[in-house]
Amino acid sequence: MEHGSVLSDAAQALTTVAATTVPWPFKPATIDLRATEGRSWRLTLNADGVRCDDLSADAEPGDLAMRGSASELVLYLYDRVPLDGLESTGDTEPMEQLAGWDPNA
Questions:
Q1: Secondary structure string (H, E, C) spanning the chain
Q2: Which of 38, 48, 95, 96 has the greatest number of CB atoms lying within 10 Å of its CB?
Q3: What digits encode the pLDDT tens for the residues 53-86?
Q4: Which Pfam families does its entry note (predicted)?
Q5: So where are the chain's domains?
């Protein structure tokens, strides 16, 4: 599979699976997701919900940075690979909370 297609699929998953306008019930946080194929995203978790944006090169570091292939990042969102299967730096609690949170409950 081409990198462009995998990156596009990852971006789509992040903006549909991980994004919501339901207020984030935990401490606000930012999570930086970096695909080894070269693209990066930032998840912002706060009272406005969960938003996914492209991560700018000059952005301040988030509370958590995760790195893996685009497919590994998506598989994590679908609970198919464990968090420790990805490189991570920082506080993993927001990602663990996101993985266990059901905004529709």
A1: CCHHHHHHHHHHHHHHCCCECCCCCCCCEEEEEEECCCCEEEEEEECCEEEEEECCCCCCCCCEEEEECHHHHHHHHCCCCCHHHCEEEECCHHHHHHHHCCCCC
A2: 95
A3: 999 989 999 999 999 998 898 888 888 888 888 9
A4: MDMPI_C
A5: 3-100
Token pair 């990156």: residue: 7
Residue 11 exposed, middle or buried by CB count within 10 Å (0-12, 13-18, 19+): middle
Tokens for 88, please give them: 């991570």
- Separation CA 34–CA 78 (nearest Å): 17
Does residue 72 sit in helix, strand or coil? helix
